[in-house]
Fold:
Amino acid sequence: MKILLKNAKILTFNDEDEILEHADLLIEGRKIAKIGKGLEEKADKVIDCTGKLVMPGLVNSHLHSDENMFRGLFDNMPLEPWMLYSCPPLQYGPFAPRLIYLRTMIGAMEMVKKGITCVQDDVSECPKATVEGYDQVFQAYKDVGLKGNIAVNMGDRKFMDKLPYTRECIPAKYHELLSSHPDPEEMIEIYEEVIRRWDRKDGMKVVFSTSAPQRCTDEYLMRGLKIAEKYDLPMHTHILETRMQRATGPEFYGKSIVKHIRDLGFLTDRLTIIHGVWMDEEDMRMIGEAGASVAHNPVSNLKLGSGIMPLRKMVRNKVNVVLGTDGMSSNDGYSIFETVKFAALLQKVMDADYKTWLDAKSILKMAIRTPARSLRRADEIGSLEAGKDADINIINLKSEAFTPLNDIYKHLAYCEDGSDVETVIAAGRILMEDRKLLHVDEEALIEELQDMTREFKERYIGTVKANDVLMPYVDDIYSKCISQYEDCTCNLFV
Structure:
């Protein structure tokens, strides 16, 4: 199919950062064929883009769709106590395949409507992963039309070995209850089956996710690296999100978690590190030298009280920074426009030298260009150029957010919230037109999920009660860890 976009303001995000006025863009199949003025090509569909902006689709480089049932549920808890309820170790799951599909779909539909065309979804299927469960996740993204880097999130350590001081703080009567752990051989088999079914099919890539280094044995980490190398997969892991995790490295390894994975050989250019709030300059230097990426999730980090990732220091150390929303239980929404705005604002309070603050265009690139490298999709996404996939947003410029129109990058970073995104195209396929999703029945899917929500909530009450007994002990662990690191790399003006 040929689609011709006519008379648009085109924001290319190419190497020259060209902005084309009154220009046209031709799509043939999944690719951009031509960009220029006065294109008179015959096309199956012509879209008049007068008064509209054509720009690359946005990328959400980190989320957890398994948290989509938790919108508006949690508040005023830091990560480690929060995880007792968002990823409960006791009495949670399994879930019906249809629920997994619908919970994924509710987030996927929202992301399309916010101008997102590609996602990196780090999915934990509780209490244990199944191929059938992951099939539902991939299928939902396929049905709505999004590109997906889907991470099968698994670690092989039992709960008692994931946190420092557990045996000191958790009474012995709970140790056996919290000592089950997944079979690494079974996890590897699941991974390889998911790869066979989905990798590089229908716009999907499989990502090897190790949750976090401290939640895995070193042996499992390195097996993960070998699988990633064998199948040429990206990798995904959480590191130094919180003050408590800063204590974890010295307690577990006698050094920082980043230095530990560097010494193992796990730190490579395949790896995207999530959060990185509590990294020091040496950690950042090692990541930059390895060519790895860091996913910045500013809204989630604020809601959980984790801190502020030192964005400018990351950039200064040549770290490839990308942007993510994180999951619904720590963000309550999937807006990358909001994420861009928070990232742009927060970096200003980290350093008083305003001459070094990153500009709006640089922050926007973290949602468009830099993910092409971290997701290992450099030949597909990141700019509007002939030969790249046609991942495109068409945005109405005749709106309050763009009136008066001064600097387009600043308007996008600070004024737009996603409501002016009218049409979304991914790999040459129109996913939304005039704000209507074309390939799914949004109303029917929402109604079906709402019907299933009551049963989920009733069941979840039991999960909360089962895990409540552990909260005092996790609080003790949390207090013991943070008391060691009351100094903060993310204080103002450090």
Remarks:
- The chain is about 40% helix and 20% strand.
- The two ends are 54 Å apart (CA to CA).
- The longest strand covers residues 2-11.
- The first helix runs from residue 79 to 86.
